[in-house]
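Chapter summary example: a protein plus magnesium ion.
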Amino acid sequence: MAKGLDVGTMNILSAQQEGNETVFVQQRNSFVEIEYSDMAEQMLSRSDVLHIRKDDKVYVVGDDALNFANIFNKETRRPMKHGILSSDEKSAIPMMKLIVEQVVGSPNYPNEKLYFSSPADPIDSELSTLYHEKTIGSFLDDMGYDAQPINEGMSVIYSELADNDFTGLGISFGAGMTNVCLAYYAVPVMKFSVARGGDWVDEQAAQATGTPVDKVTSIKEEDFELDFQTDVGGVEGALSIYYENLLDYVIENITKEIDEEDIEEGLDVPVVVTGGTSMPDGFTKLFERHLEEANIPFSISGVTHAEEPMYSVARGGLVAARSDEDEAGTGDDQAEADDEAEAASAED
Ligand SMILES: Nc1ncnc2c1ncn2[C@@H]1O[C@H](COP(=O)(O)OP(=O)(O)OP(=O)(O)O)[C@@H](O)[C@H]1O
Ligand SMILES: [Mg+2]
């Protein structure tokens, strides 16, 4: 068995194997606070609305938060910012706990292996990922998992570069961050993050055009393309400008962080890009073009786009957890549990 979990600034997803299929469960990493008195009791009793009641407040969490926010004219809030638990949000921890529990479910057996994604420390801010990583790890251990963090960029390599001996450069363009990892034969040799991603693009484009951020985000997610055909002056024009700026910023930092010594001689490095921010048509081409134009100290064999950019990180966690479980000669706990059950029923 074993599971993978992508703990993202905007989306939390789990992955597990069921027969030949990988099954994903996803929730928005978001919540809204509503006065209990405003709430029709029956709206909440719809059994699948994730919520917690605390005194006279109700917190609706995950995918339903946005619907409830619209109905009650409230703002949604987010437990994470720039890839880690937000220090500005006092309710972050209980909200995340609820979402994580819903997405990942109970372990199938005690100490089931679970790999959860964690960002690399950002090179452009003072933020540290330690507290975030330990907090998420402790929720999962309390639930009965054997939880291990996995670097988000490394997770991309597990998911997308299996056919290349887990060797190459993986880049996850998320909401709060962009994570970069270079690995040889599944060993990370260089990893970093920058505290910029889709949220940054949205905020910049909103500010430049005087448009509410939520509006910008929905324009971007609906039918925005990076084709540079759009009129100057509109939201799409601004999105293109900040997208291009984000790509250059990431490439500049790759150039700074990767030394020639990091690269095996004679190796052409395959690059794979993924994450929600990589979704617009034209993204991968644009990134490849800018990478070619940049003065990077190594040669690249090609840039590919993950087939399912929203699922890469969770899938990579699952691949890592399964291979760890196999190595440990398991699911021992599973096998033991089965043996015990058999022995117990034989005794009856
Ligand atoms: N179709 C789309 N076009 C453009 N952007 C999109 C699209 N779908 C989602 N996004 C953007 O992708 C981002 C979310 O991506 P993702 O789920 O990979 O991030 P995350 O893992 O939650 O964040 P992080 O890794 O930074 O913590 C958001 O900025 C969202 O607006
Ligand atoms: Mg992510």
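Key point: Residues 6, 8, 152, 172, 174, 275, 313 surround magnesium ion (ligand 2) (CB under 6 Å).
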